[in-house]
Design a protein that fits this description.
heterodimer; A: 275 residues; mainly alpha; MetI-like fold; 11 helices; disordered C terminus; B: 376 residues; alpha+beta; Rossmann fold; OB fold (Dihydrolipoamide Acetyltransferase, E2P); 2 domains; 6-stranded mixed β-sheet; 5-stranded mixed barrel; 20 strands; 34% strand
Chain lengths: 275, 376
């Protein structure tokens, strides 16, 4: 059994380790390590295509994570207020949304957006007959919308768990102490679920930053970092790609660890309170 | 019998002006009737307890007073005003929650000042700090203000919850099983402290509990609840001495019950006949027609356990002996009456001698100490 486990971990992490190691390769070829160097990091970061793709990814990740956090929080709070079967169905649908393969979401989003644009664009053309009418198309907007939509289910799942673990009587205590529903939300609910929101934000950011499949369908003419990596890999794996991959990996890991730390630290306080 | 229903309620405290009142307040959850047309008043400065097993409606009554539940029908009045639909945050009452519900992200002082800080315009900071300090003094936690909630022990958290409520000087302080989470010794301490505090502040306390000892030791008046109704209300003494049903006698203190049928009835005296034909006299309490099923209730401390037979004494065998310090509790077995509890005071045992399991003995009680009650 121990050997199996070892083999599993080896197969899982060896390729990743190889990428990280070869990103420090001094030579041109990905197959033989000729010496330590950080030149490929420099090359990658001075490549205008890379920096532009990085910037696009960053903007999309930040905006979609912000949107997902705000609307996900609102949805989670609304779900908390629901009862019985409606809530069970709504919860199940959220989990389904997370489990549906990315390619399905990608295609579905693409079709939905194209259909939507097909309806709206003629209307816009009618309203501004000079031929100056703004036309909706794939790009930042569709990328952010698609990522925000998917990330929202992540935020909802995290917050639902957190809200369920929260003592309802805290809200009642606040109301009993003359706080209006809004004051209760601001002074009790929000501070207590904030770690969950923050963790949801970080996870959403990571998801969007790493996502290739959904982005591939809805990015239009925009190039995110994963799309750039995919398109350049067809010209062969260069140490530059390894360097980019390693950077994305480090950023993602850091964010995921941060999210975990925040999520773990939160409930501990409540646990100590209940004891 | 109506006078007995209110037995003890007409003491001087019940004649105070009312601070809260329920008028036929009913709460229905689906088909469950949690509160069944509750009508009662709470006097200013009174210490009132709702006592009953879980699901009897006592918590629903409290929550309707706090504003967490709106009655399905009927009205709730606070300080002369109709508050039936007024939300909790606009009611001049405060609650001590069962698990305290202290805000974990705030310090002790922030928790206590929470209610004061909700007022608009914002109150003066120095004034709030002074009030918080006074509240901390009152619950003997001076200097604990900057502490975090999770740094406090269970007993200390209980006091913080109490301070957080009383600092607002509520018209009524609601206590929802406040001592349930404390260990026995701490609970006794808090019982005394709550009583002292109530006398000092003059605030009306309404306590919900399933612990009869808690209710008996602290309350001016107890409402025994069952199935969403108040079965009997009165002073602890009145409930103990004059329960109107087996349910109340069983819930307030320990008692022995002998089943039978009412065979003789005068003004207040009666006689019960057991299925095997034994007859016992007793005072009749509650509404009982002649010939109905009844039960004779005898408190364990009213029964005399002796080594030799006297007239009217019943032969028993001692089953078990539990030494309780000032008392000894015997479980004795009677051929037809079943098992009975007998409480013997230490002095009585010292003079009459003690019994060991297996010993034979004779029990007797004065007929006027037996109470004949309705069966339910």
């Amino acid at each position: 059994m121990r050997l199996y486990a070892f083999a599993v971990y080896l197969f899982l992490y060896l390729p990743i380790a190889v990428i990280a190691i070869f990103s420090f390769n001094a030579g041109r070829h990905a197959s033989q390590f000729t010496g330590f160097s950080v030149q490929w990091y420099g090359k990658a970061l001075s490549n205008p295509f890379v920096t532009e793709a990085l910037w696009t990814s960053f903007i999309v990740a930040l905006t979609s994570a912000l949107i997902a956090s705000v609307f996900g929080t609102m949805a989670a709070l609304a779900l908390q207020g629901m009862k019985g079967r409606v809530r069970v169905v709504a919860d199940a649908l959220i989990y389904v949304a997370v489990m549906v393969p990315g390619i399905v979401i990608g295609i579905a989003t693409l079709i939905a957006l194209v259909t939507l644009f097909g309806w709206i664009n003629p209307l816009l053309a009618l309203l501004a007959p000079e031929g100056q009418a703004p036309q909706l198309s794939m790009g930042y907007g569709s990328l952010i919308a698609a990522h925000a939509l998917f990330s929202m289910s992540l935020v909802i799942i995290i917050l639902r768990a957190r809200l369920a673990g929260m003592d309802r009587s805290l809200m009642e205590a606040s109301a009993d102490l003359y706080a209006s529903p809004f004051a209760t939300f601001r002074q009790v609910t929000l501070p207590l679920i904030f770690p969950g929101i923050l963790a949801g934000f970080l996870l959403s950011f990571t998801f969007s930053f790493d996502d290739f499949i959904i982005a591939f369908f809805v990015a239009g003419s925009e190039t995110t970092l994963p799309i750039y990596v995919f398109s350049s890999i067809r010209r062969g794996v260069t140490p530059e790609i390894n360097a980019i991959g390693t950077m994305v990996l480090v950023v993602s890991l850091l964010l995921l660890v941060a999210a975990q730390v925040i999520l773990r630290r939160g409930p501990k306080k409540e646990g100590a309170d209940a004891a | 019998m109506q006078s007995q229903f209110d037995s003890g309620a007409k003491d001087q405290k019940a004649n105070r002006p009312l601070v809260a009142e329920f008028r036929a307040a009913t709460k229905r959850y689906g088909t469950v009737l949690a509160a069944d047309a509750l009508s009662f008043g709470i006097g200013k400065g009174e210490f009132l307890s709702f006592l009953g097993p879980s699901g009897c409606g006592k918590t629903t009554a409290l929550r309707m007073l706090a504003g967490f539940e709106t009655p399905t029908s009927g009205e709730v009045y606070l300080d002369g005003e109709r508050v039936t639909d007024v939300p909790a945050y606009r009611r001049p009452v405060n609650m001590v929650f069962q698990h305290y519900a202290l805000f974990p992200h705030m310090t002790v002082a922030q928790n206590i000042s929470y209610g004061l800080m909700q007022h608009r315009p914002r109150p003066d900071r120095a004034d709030v700090a002074r009030k918080v300090d006074r509240a901390l003094d009152m619950v003997r936690l001076s200097g604990f203000g900057p502490r975090r909630i999770w740094e406090m022990s269970g007993g200390q958290q209980q006091r913080v919850a109490l301070a957080r409520a009383i600092v607002n000087e509520p018209k009524v302080l609601l206590l929802d099983e406040p001592l349930a989470a404390l260990d026995r010794k701490l609970r006794r301490e808090m019982q005394i402290e709550l009583q002292t505090l109530q006398r000092q502040l003059g605030i009306t306390f309404v306590l919900v509990t399933h612990d009869q000892e808690e209710a008996l030791s602290m309350s001016d008046r107890i409402c025994i609840m069952r199935g969403g109704r108040i079965v009997q209300s009165g002073s602890p003494n009145a409930l103990y001495d004059q329960p109107i049903s087996r349910y109340v006698a069983d819930f307030v203190g320990k008692s022995n019950f002998i089943d039978g049928r009412l065979t003789a009835l005068s003004a207040t005296e009666g006689q019960i006949e057991t299925p095997v034909g034994q007859r016992f006299a007793g005072r009749v309490s509650g509404a009982l027609p002649l010939g109905s099923k009844a039960v004779l209730s005898i408190r364990p401390e009213q029964i005399d356990l002796a080594k030799s037979a006297r007239t009217g004494a019943e032969a028993v065998t001692v089953i078990n002996r539990i030494f309780l310090g000032e008392h000894t509790e015997y479980l004795v077995r009677h051929a037809s009456l079943g098992d009975l509890l007998v409480l013997v005071a230490r002095q009585a045992e010292a003079s009459a001698g003690s019994f060991a399991p297996g010993d034979a003995g004779f029990i007797s009680w004065a007929p006027e100490t037996g109470l004949i009650l309705p069966q339910d």
